[in-house]
Amino acid sequence: MRTTIQAAKGLGMRTTLELPDPLFARLKARAARCHIHHQQALHYWEQQAAEKAPMPIWRL
Predict the structure, then answer these.
(1) Where do the structural domains in the chain lie, given as residue ranges?
(2) CA distances from 54 to 15, 24, 25, 50, 57 (A)
(3) In this structure, are residues 21 and 1 in contact, taking their beta carbons and an 8 Å threshold?
């Protein structure tokens, strides 16, 4: 399933993600349980994951 997320309203930025159908169905079901749109849920969960991810160490 392909879903397009608008990253910032008014800026025209978009990101397209390719998600397997079972994962997309789980995403939509979980968002529905939280009473939010699946795009809002994906944006929130992406932010949470980005904050927890360690920064890569670049070696020169």
Answers:
(1) 2-40
(2) 23, 26, 29, 8, 9
(3) yes
